[in-house]
Amino acid sequence: MEDEENIEEELLLVESQLNGLQDKIKTLLDQQEELYERQAQLKAMLEISKTSRDASNSAPSVALEDWSGKFSWDSQADDTRFNVFGISSYRSNQREIINSIMSGKDVLVIMAAGGGKSLCYQLPAVLRDGITLVVSPLLSLIQDQVMGLAALGIPAHMLTSTTNKEIEKFIYKALEKGEGELKILYVTPEKISKSKRFMSKLEKCHHAGRLSLVAIDEAHCCSQWGHDFRPDYKNLGILKIQFPSVPMIALTATATSKVQMDLIEMLHIPRSVKFVSTVNRPNLFYRVYEKSSVGKVVIDEIANFISESYPNNESGIVYCFSRKECEQVAKELRGRGISADYYHADMDVVAREKVHMRVPHAQG
Ligand SMILES: Nc1ncnc2c1ncn2[C@@H]1O[C@H](COP(=O)(O)OP(=O)(O)OP(=O)(O)O)[C@@H](O)[C@H]1O
């Protein structure tokens, strides 16, 4: 009897020691996995750094090839441009940019606002097999793009804090298993830096050979020297480290040479082909009016300017000094028969989206 008790006691002790060991083994295996992952990242970083040094010693990041020549995808690209995007001819540099991406190059595009940067990655996204990931800083810009693409019949979605669970599930399935129709996926930079789940699905998509292109919109946000620095953009370098074989296109309307060098380094695209288009916009001009000191008169003048200059229901933006002023000016303009609404950071997502949807898709 006493023997049995001793055996049971020792059995319990052994079992508890075994449990303790299992926990330790699990912790060690987890550590091993993390170290393997870090090892792979460090190796890739070393590789990129060496390539970067070689590239800066030998070749500047400018276009040397003739990207306006003939390519095997020419007729398919022309067909998609015309029949899917409804665009009759390319603007300056668009064709060359598209050709360099289609050739698998990393590309840096500096093109004026409204110059047609989106087509430069959306057309290759449609032409290439698989999914294009687009990182863009603003929800409103993303919504605009997704709405525009949906209108063209191109399967595009966005994965942001506002995406509902069902769409999120659809997107994750498309990334992980290649199910469902998804060609272009928009995310904010926070998704890359903060969502391990998203990055793991993206990893799976890449492993299955389905990640076709990465586009970084408003790429100047990477640089602390740029006017719009976004801390989460700093982490986008991970994309080239994780997916070195996937071409990357970085696009911006404004980048000094210091900012360009900075973002090439941060995104790890030292061999990128660079395209700079003129930032001059002949259709844009400034006009300065003297402002009355009487608020009501100012609103009357704005209302008159809008109805006289834009009698055909065109859309426009009135920038105000404060959120409160935005709300007041919109109300006053409505009182003068102008269809106006306000939009600022202090509105909830649904209200913002509602206003956004009322603005016709921007035409540059
Ligand atoms: N080759 C083209 N011919 C005619 N219209 C074009 C062409 N390329 C683009 N567009 C149109 O020009 C407008 C502006 O294009 P897009 O939005 O891509 O500009 P952007 O360079 O991304 O501007 P932003 O810097 O403001 O985001 C869109 O309506 C687009 O359809």
Describe the structure.
Residues 98-273 form the Helicase ATP-binding domain. With 364 residues, this protein is of the alpha/beta class. The protein is built from 13 helices and 7 strands. The chain has helices spanning 2-58, 74-83, 94-102, 117-127, 139-151, 165-177, 189-194, 196-207, 237-242, 257-266, 295-309, 323-335, 349-358, and strands spanning 107-110, 131-135, 156-159, 184-187, 211-216, 248-252, 273-276. It has a 7-stranded parallel sheet, with helices on both faces. Strand 3, helix 6 (165-177) and strand 4 (184-187) form a beta-alpha-beta unit. Helix 3 (94-102) packs parallel to helix 4 (117-127) and helix 6 (165-177) runs parallel beside helix 8 (196-207). The chain is globular, with a radius of gyration of 26 Å. The termini are far apart. Adenosine-5'-triphosphate binds next to helix 4.
Q: Kindly state the percentage of residues in helix.
A: 40-55%
N-to-C order of helices and strands: HHHEHEHEHEHHEHEHEHHH
N→C terminal distance: 91 Å
Strands, total number: 7
Instruction: Say which molecules are bound, naming each kind only once.
Output: adenosine-5'-triphosphate
Note poorly predicted spans.
58-63
Largest sheet composition:
7 strands, parallel
Shape: globular
Catalytic activity: ATP + H2O = ADP + phosphate + H(+); Couples ATP hydrolysis with the unwinding of duplex DNA by translocating in the 3'-5' direction
Keywords: ATP-binding, Coiled coil, DNA-binding, Helicase, Hydrolase, Isomerase, Metal-binding, Nucleotide-binding, Nucleus
Organism: Triticum turgidum subsp. durum
Enzyme class: isomerase
